[in-house]
Amino acid sequence: MAEEKREFQAEVAKLLDIVVHSLYSNKEIFLRELISNASDACDKLRYAALTDPSLVADGAEYRIRLIPDAEAGQLTIADNGVGMNRDDLVANLGTIAKSGTADFMNRLTGDAKKDMTLIGQFGVGFYSAFMVADKVTVVTRKAGEEHGWRWESDGKGEFTIAPEPDAPRGASITLSLRDSEKEFLDRFRLSAIVKRYSDHIAIPVILVEGDKEETLNSASALWTRSKSEVTPEQYREFYHHVAHAFDDPWLTIHSKAEGAIEYTSLLFVPGSKPFDIFHPDRKQHVKLYVKRVFITDEAEGLLPPYLRFVRGVVDSQDLPLNVSREMLQHNPVLAKMKSGLVKKVLSELKKKAEDDAESYATFWETFGAVLKEGIYEDFERKADILALCRFRTTATDGLATLDEVVGRMKDGQDALYYATGDDVAALKKSPQLEGFLAKGVEVLLLTDPIDEFWVPAVGEYQGKKLVAITQGDVDLSKVQADPETEAAKPEAAPAEALDTLVAALKLNLDGKVKDVRATDRLTNSAVCLVADSGQMSLHLEKLLKAHNQLDHDSPRVLEINPRHPLIKALADKVKSSGREGVEDAALLLLDQARIVEGEPPADPVDFARRLATVMEKGLVG
Ligand SMILES: Nc1ncnc2c1ncn2[C@@H]1O[C@H](COP(=O)(O)OP(=O)(O)OP(=O)(O)O)[C@@H](O)[C@H]1O
Q: Which of 37, 311, 496, 571 would be 501's cystine partner, CB 3.0–4.6 Å?
């Protein structure tokens, strides 16, 4: 087969262009990326060889070798891992398969500095080689296959692939260094970089100069060392490697479980939100090892989906080495480890929340929405997770716990109230909130879509019902208001006139609303919409419609404020001229309530015409 020329996927070409042309100051990280890939490739082969030893017939001692060649100006990073065949090369070194890539590409601005920071978070992996090289050659043979391949590119849009019959097993990446990057041939420089970024790699990283070989790293799995032997930098670098992440971990949890089952875990909570955290697969990301042999990074039962932000490794002493990924499903040892790990992570989060509320708040902003899924998915730990939750409320600018909110309940208040919506600022302006603010009743402001699900599932906290302020059955009459505020309240419309107005509005809005009634929920606004008890909340309905899960509106209850001047005037008018006199007003009031909810008027043209008529009357007549 002859040499074949291919084009990079458009996203790769764009990424390469930025990588090559930006003045990225931290170029040395290319070596970390390539060593990290080499180590992953060895892990993969070690696992595959458990069931098929013939794959490593040509040697099972894994090595990563760094070979500088000053004369040629080339640096080679060679491993004897799993290697790649032709299809792998095209798929892995010509495209980006990572989830979130499209989103990431859209966020690139064209401003080199800003883009580089973004890339820092995304990770360019193999492609970082082009930061220092103007040509990259990969010679590789996949374990178990007879023939090898040569992949070559100058990073300018195309690559070539040709057969390389005698390639040894694994992959060797040769970088033709740019003139300005020859420092990466220097043994001291290479040694320092490996110590800084790759010391934790469990496979020996060997510097080869002529017939001299020197191992540059500790080459023992980091999690097997005792905590006192590991520096914060080493933990951080290990996190970068294991999580393929480029931020700093917010929390590091290194622990050993001994007893009925034995395992070591080194877990991290990232400092920033991974791109794919809300991907529908909700996969967990902790790697499973058995006696230091990598088994899989897809052990579904290792951590629950609501802890999918956790990264790291778990190394079991009890699982058999030849455990297949299929056998892991419903495995009792795995189930026990999961229970232990969940307990550990939740208790470490609790500690952090107690010791450093400010730092915990940053965690909460990043991953709170994910953790909250556990409230209704993990019944056993519901209480622990609720205790870790933080909320925005009407009472403080910061975050509050549910216990704090319960502690601030007013005399006569028998429920915990909440409002759901898209953002806190808009929620704070909800008309439905007015009556609560007037009586000093604290309301939780919930803005994560998940809140619509866990709140009804939980139902109550410490015996207090959780009630939506946009729901029909809110009764604040037992809560004492401040006497001064109470005295300053305007008179309500007389009961009889109000009843007539309600009846007139019902007639005029027949079929458009479920009911019309007077409320003490409002102080400044004339009207608002609420869901009847048992009906879906307004916000949930909006969310479902946005996701095409719902295609109709349910009629709502229109509540009117009997103390509002407009309502009082309308009540007067109905008394004197009957229900026909308020036809336009009824429809306008309903549209007004819809607009406040962020919805368009039922018929914008009719709405505009009615508004113009009313304004004209106001101005002219
Ligand atoms: N030395 C290697 N041996 C075998 N396969 C490799 C090697 N280096 C890279 N690959 C393959 O190429 C793929 C792409 O590598 P790349 O470094 O771009 O991304 P990654 O390692 O998957 O993710 P990240 O960008 O987070 O590092 C890898 O997932 C792997 O399948």
A: 571
> Residue 119: CB within 6 Å of ligand 1?
no
Kindly report the protein residue whose alpha carbon is nearest to atom 19 of ligand 1: 125
Residue nearest to atom 30 of ligand 1 (CA): 92
Q: Which residues fall within 8 angstroms of residue 102, CB to CB, at 6 or more apart? A: 11
Query: Nearest 5 degrees, angle CA 315-CA 321-CA 325?
Result: 85
Whose alpha carbon is nearest atom 31 of ligand 1?
92
Tell me: the pLDDT tens digits for 9-24?
A: 888 888 888 777 765 6
Report whether 383 contacts 346 (CB < 8 A). no
Mean pLDDT score of the chain, rounded to an integer?
89
CB pairs under 8 A, 24+ apart, for 176-182? 176/72, 176/73, 176/74, 176/133, 176/134, 176/135, 176/136, 176/137, 177/73, 177/74, 177/75, 177/132, 177/133, 177/134, 178/132, 178/133, 178/134, 179/73, 181/27, 181/132, 181/133, 182/70, 182/73
pTM of this structure: 0.78
Q: Whose CA is nearest to atom 2 of ligand 1?
A: 38
Residue nearest to atom 25 of ligand 1 (CA): 125
Q: Which of 215-224, 482-491, 528-537 has the highest mean pLDDT?
A: 215-224
- From CA 535, how far away is CA 552, in angstroms rounded? 14
* Atom 12 (ligand 1) nearest CA: 92
d(CA 85, CA 147): 8
CA of 126 to the centre of ligand 1 (A): 6
Give yes or no for residue 125 CB within 6 A of ligand 1: yes
Mean pLDDT of 145-170: 95
Does the CB atom of residue 83 touch ligand 1 within 6 A?
Answer: yes
Name all domains of the chain by residue range, CATH numbers in brackets: 4-218 (3.30.565.10), 223-360 (3.30.230.80), 391-483 (3.40.50.11260), 492-620 (1.20.120.790)
| C-alpha of 84 from chain center | 32
Atom of ligand 1 nearest to the CA of 79: 1
| C-alpha of residue 183 to centroid of ligand 1, in Å | 25
**Cα 407 to ligand 1 centroid, rounded to whole Å:** 53
Q: Is the CB of 81 under 6 A from ligand 1?
A: yes
The first and second tokens of residue 555, run together, are: 């009629």
Distance separating alpha carbons of residues 285 and 303, to the nearest angstrom: 8
List CB contacts of 596: < 8 A, sequence separation 6 or more. Answer: 430, 431, 525, 528, 529
Whether ligand 1 lies within 6 angstroms of the CB of 79 is answered as yes
From CA 420, how far away is CA 539, in angstroms rounded? 6
Q: Is 122 annotated as a binding residue?
A: yes
Model ipTM value: 0.97
* φ, ψ of residue 100 in degrees (nearest 5): 90, 0
- What is the DSSP-derived secondary structure letter of residue 566? H
SS3 419: strand
Any ligand 1 atom below 6 A from CB of 250: no
What is the residue-wise DSSP string for 495-524? HHHHHHHHHHHHHHTBTTEEEEEE-SS-SS
Measured in angstroms, how far is the CA atom of residue 38 from the centroid of ligand 1?
Answer: 8
Atom of ligand 1 nearest to the CA of 245: 26
